[in-house]
Amino acid sequence: MANNDLEARHLETLDRDLRRFSRLEVATAQVGRPFVGSGIAFVFIVIAGITAALLFGQASNTMIVVIAAMFGAYMALNIGANDVANNMAPAVGANTLTMGGAIAIAAIFESAGALIAGGDVVSTIAKGIINTESMGTATVFIWAMMAALLSAALWINLATWVGAPVSTTHSVVGGVMGAGIAAAGFGAVSWVKMSQIAASWVISPLLGGIIAAGFLWFIKARIIYQDDKIAAARKWVPVLVGIMAGAFASYLALKGLKHLFKINLQTALVIGLVSGVLIWMVTIPVIRRQAEGLENRNKSLKILFGIPLIISAALLSFAHGANDVANAVGPLAAIVQASAVGDFTHAVSIPPWVMIIGAFGISFGLFLFGPKLIRVVGSQITKLNPMRAYCVALSAAITVIVASWLGLPVSSTHIAVGAVFGVGFFREWDAERRLIKARGAVPERPVLAPEERRRRKLVRRSHFLTIIAAWVITVPAAALLSGLLFLGIQAIAG
After folding, report:
1. Selection from 388, 217, 426, 246 nearest residue 309 by Cα
2. What DSSP line would sit under 65-93, residue for residue?
3. How far is it, in rounded angstroms, from Cα 210 to Cα 198?
4. What pLDDT digit, counting tens, does each position of 253-297 carry?
5. Taking all residues of the chain, what is their mean pLDDT, rounded to a whole number?
6. 385-403 as b/e, with b when 16 or more CB fall inside 10 Å?
7. Which InterPro entries does the entry link to (predicted)?
């Protein structure tokens, strides 16, 4: 008996020690995880520099190109960590995609968009933000582009760390503007162009929010609030999928494939109309089969929106890779061209190895650091389900088309996040409306106290204020940082 007690105490002590070791291993893994990601990112940046050294050739300014390639790789990693979250967050927040599945789809389609339709030419650098001729010499221009690239990457890195989705395009624009001012004074900046970009801070999220809220209202009115939800879904879901197909066909024709084919807005809309009608016809029997045997409840509707939501997320990623890879490699390509031939006033050709750095950098950044922003946009602003997430994705495509038609510069980040806010605020309004209606039907229903009403808000105000503040200060913050970096680089080099 004594031996049994001794053995039991021995096993208990052993189990206690093993639990301590298990907790220690878990804690060590949690602490070490950020270092693993940072380590892999650092290796990628080094590989980008080595690639530039091997492919640029032996020249007196090879080291400049190597450093610029490392800055470009760092920028691409940050775009993947911050910007790509906007495409995948709605599907993840609605539990239609797992985090791993979203990252895999985004990595494939972002890379495909960048490499297939990422653009062979970037217009005179910074999209007319500064007058490149005012830079004077190629050396000054190179320093300015390096400062712009590094400042934009640093700012996006900071925004990702605090959990704020910001526009990478605006970060690059602010960086170029700040370096241009530091190099050639305020007269070097096109203030008309900057005023258009400032206007897009309001236009992008407002358009995205209104369109997303409009589609959510339609889904609620025509499907969710109907007595026979499944019959309503059989009728209207194919229409919504057709609208999505048409919108994305126009979106990809207008934005994602503009570097492969010259397509104007009218042609893009015709392509979208034809695609939308065809997909609508194909979807009718598919939705009819999916709807068989489903219960007449809201939960059943989520099944019908799942696959269209996944497809929309993939298409958004493709278009994003085609468009925003230039934010990472545009300034780098300009530095390569200026270093190779001394030309910095004309259109910039992007070498294939530069595009590959941008494409793979975006994918690595998403894989290593993207989950944080995906969670913020997908679940921490407001609760999403497949119907609401579908409205967000559809709004992103339609808003870009509307903005292109109006000739307005918009940010894909602002559109997507604005759409999430639009869905959330519409839910608040709809819930309040239904509460007032119910109270009218039941006069004795108690009125909620102001504190309880605030607690029941469906959009988290803290995230709303943080994100809006980050949007407002992105351009001036990136500009200030870029100007300081330019002066520092010039002092070191000079």
Report:
1. 388
2. HHHHHHHHHHHHHHHHHHTTHHHHHHHHH
3. 19
4. 876 566 667 778 888 889 999 999 999 999 999 999 988 888 888
5. 80
6. bbbbbbbbbbbbbbbbbeb
7. Phos_transporter
